[in-house]
Specification:
One of its GO terms (cellular component) is outer membrane. InterPro entries: Autotransporte_beta, Autotransporte_beta_dom_sf, OM_autotransptr_brl_dom. Keywords: Signal. This is Outer membrane autotransporter barrel domain protein. The protein is mainly beta and about 650 residues long. It has a domain of about 325 residues: Beta Barrel (Lipocalin). About 10% of the residues lie in helices and about 50% in strands. The protein contains two helices and 39 strands. The strands form six sheets. A twelve-stranded mixed beta sheet has the order 1-2-4-7-10-12-14-16-19-23-22-21, with no helix packed on it. The chain has a twelve-stranded antiparallel β-barrel with strand order 24-25-26-27-28-29-30-33-34-37-38-39. Strand 38 and strand 39 form a beta hairpin. The longest helix has about 35 residues.
Length: about 650
């Protein structure tokens, strides 16, 4: 069973003197101080006079509508303290007098409240208005309202609502309700239970009652110890699946540990729900459920019931599947792949365009100043990493180049700015066949230098050497709902340095005045720094990654006329490293790698729209097979100033 929970103002003035600036600053600070309690205490709501048959006092409501269009997106946040508002009426995320109240939210962080109830959504409709998919989040405070309701409907259903509780709130004088669906005398019951969820992210919570929840999710903190109690209910508790009525979907229980290490040992117990009276639960709840500590340890819990308690007992503790611990490193693999694509752009179209832009005079001496050039490439690729990573990316570079007056050789120097952006999806599979997927984005910004020297006289004419050096900043993120579904989305966001270089040797043979062939060998080195992150409470070290690649290839070109010159080529590339090592909770994790060979083919054309101008365009396409599979394209612009 895979359990998936959801989861400064600029002042437009310029003082003309020191005293004016001081006065303006003091005025701003005074206004800020006066306004601070107002915006700090609440956000997103207004005081409304609600129908007297429901409430005796005005309520505080995120969105209020008195028509059939319904309300959605209401969001009331009380932070840091609701006491200042002195509310005796209800607090409601979204109130509809005539329609649905779906997708609204209330958040309470502290303070004291004893009013007429907390409601994620409230539909006051004698027809069929529903109160569904609303959320109430409580992280602190002393709360004793008439009740805490995910959703409340007087004419429809109240399903799919969620109550989330964190921290140490005092709820000992109120009850927790997933939903409430009122019916008139003689009317059939309406569903106020299906898909309603109670999430508890703390210990030692106390309440008067719990009602109308299908799903229970217990997120045990890393400080949990054997014998701890999560929730004490000062009344009887009924969580068994109804045998009849509008909701007969089975009750589910999920347990996860938010933190690293193994705070519990085999045979330790934690009381999930304790009633001061009786507890009624399904007999089938004695079946085992799995929970994880972070992403490193897999706990198997057995659920047990007594006369008054629901208890989770640790049956076994194992290391999680390799694919779970490997998945976070796929984000680093995608990052190094993105930066290597930038290296390909700089050493390929970028170098070629810089050379073409900085044209030579007839006497093989530099005739012009600096020439501008630019190149961009895009690709969709699949990298075999032991699993695989799919990436869509775009890279851009622009710079200036110049040929220097050196007798007997063509010497080119230049500098450039580069940036790239990519999105990726990684795919792993557990030994049991479950899919472990992740997504993320990578972005890089940097710059570099390039140089090229070609012999233009004698028997070595056509022989050349080239090089680039690059450095910049790389930011990447990672997201997955599959590592520990009970604890929610696993994620990290890192910003690290990258740097690298390439060198190459080649020979250009001018077969005829129109035809030529370029045979080359290149070496690429790219490095990205590592980072330390925390993923669902587990400490994870993402190591530095180095890529070492060689490429052997050839390109043939032919000038059809002064304006059009098509070309095509092929190459073989081999990656000697590209391995993303990591350590999860102190233990080495399986490492994805880009090591292996890739064959590539290319076709393109250089077009000069007007022969007598310094402007030209290069358009090309590439295909890849091997460790990297996919297609790419590049567009290059050159202009001689």
């Amino acid at each position: 069973m895979r359990l998936r929970p959801p989861q400064a103002t600029t002042i437009p003035w310029r003082a003309h003197s020191h005293s004016a600036r001081v006065a303006a600053t003091l005025l701003f600070l005074a206004l800020f101080a006066l306004a601070a309690p107002l915006w700090a205490a609440n956000f997103g709501g207004t005081t409304e006079n609600l129908p007297s048959w429901n409430f005796a006092n005005p309520g505080y409501v995120g969105i209020y509508k008195s028509d059939t269009t319904g309300v959605t997106g209401g969001n009331v946040i009380f932070d840091p303290d609701i006491t200042d508002l002195n509310i005796s009426g209800p607090i409601i995320g979204g109130y509809s007098d005539g329609g649905n109240a779906n997708g609204n939210q209330v958040t309470i962080t502290s303070g004291t409240y004893a009013g007429e109830g907390l409601y994620g959504g409230f539909s006051d409709d004698s027809g069929s208005g529903n109160a569904s998919n609303n959320t109430v989040i409580i992280t602190g405070g002393t709360l004793s309202p008439l009740g805490v309701f995910g959703g409340f409907s007087t004419g429809g259903i109240a399903t799919g609502n969620t109550l989330r509780i964190f921290g140490n709130p005092d709820l000992s004088r109120t009850a927790l309700m997933g939903g409430r669906a009122e019916v008139g005398s003689g009317d059939p019951a309406r569903d106020a239970r299906t898909d309603n969820t109670l999430e508890i992210h703390t210990l030692n919570l106390q309440t008067l009652g719990i009602e109308n929840f299908q799903h229970f999710r217990f997120y045990l903190p890393g400080t949990v110890r054997a014998g701890d109690t999560v929730l004490t209910v000062d009344n009887g508790v009924v969580i068994e699946t109804p045998s009849s009525g509008p909701s007969i979907a089975p009750t589910t229980v999920g347990v996860g540990i938010m933190g690293s290490g193994t705070p519990l040992a085999v045979n330790d117990t934690v009381t999930l729900i304790k009633s001061t009276s009786r507890l009624y639960a399904d007999t089938g709840m004695t079946n085992n459920v799995s929970g994880m500590a972070g992403i490193s340890s897999l706990y198997t819990f057995g659920l047990e019931t007594t006369l008054n308690s629901l208890v989770a007992r640790v049956i076994s503790i194992e290391q999680t599947d390799e694919s779970v611990r490997k998945s976070p490193s796929e984000g680093k693999t995608a990052s190094i792949a993105l930066v290597t694509q930038g290296a390909d752009l700089a050493a390929g179209p970028g170098m070629g365009n810089a050379r073409a832009a900085a044209s030579l005079g007839a006497d093989n001496m530099a005739q012009a100043g600096w020439s501008g050039f630019g190149a961009t490439s895009g690709a969709t690729s699949r990298y075999a990493t032991g699993s695989h990573v799919d990436m869509q990316s775009v890279a851009l570079m622009t710079g200036l180049a110049k040929r220097l007056p050196v007798s007997g050789v063509d010497l080119l120097v230049g500098g450039f700015f580069e940036t790239s952006i990519g999105s990726y999806d990684s795919h792993n599979e557990t030994a049991a066949g479950d899919s472990i997927t992740a997504q993320g984005d990578s972005r890089s910004v940097g710059g570099g230098l390039l140089g090229r020297v070609e012999v233009t006289e004698g028997v070595a004419r056509g022989l050349y050497a080239e090089a680039t050096v690059r450095a910049g900043r790389l930011r990447s993120d990672y997201r997955s709902d599959d590592l520990n579904p009970t604890l929610g989305e696993a994620e990290y966001d890192i910003s690290v340095a990258y740097y690298g270089a390439h060198t190459g040797l080649g020979y250009i043979w001018n077969i005829t005045e129109q035809a030529w062939i370029d045979v080359y060998a290149k070496y690429f080195w790219t490095h990205t720094n590592g980072a330390d992150v925390s993923i669902l409470g587990d400490a994870v070290t993402l190591d530095d990654v180095d890529s070492h690649r060689t490429r052997l290839g050839a390109r043939f070109g032919y000038s059809l006329n002064e304006c059009i010159a098509p070309y095509f080529g092929a190459a073989w590339e081999y990656e000697f490293d590209g391995t993303a090592h990591s350590v999860v909770a102190g233990v080495d994790a399986p490492a994805p790698s880009l090591k292996g060979g890739t064959g590539l083919g290319e076709v393109g054309v250089t077009w000069k729209p007007l022969p007598d101008t310094g402007f030209s365009i290069d358009l090309g396409a590439q295909g890849y097979t091997g460790i990297r599979e996919g297609v790419g394209g590049n567009l290059s612009l050159m202009y001689e100033f």
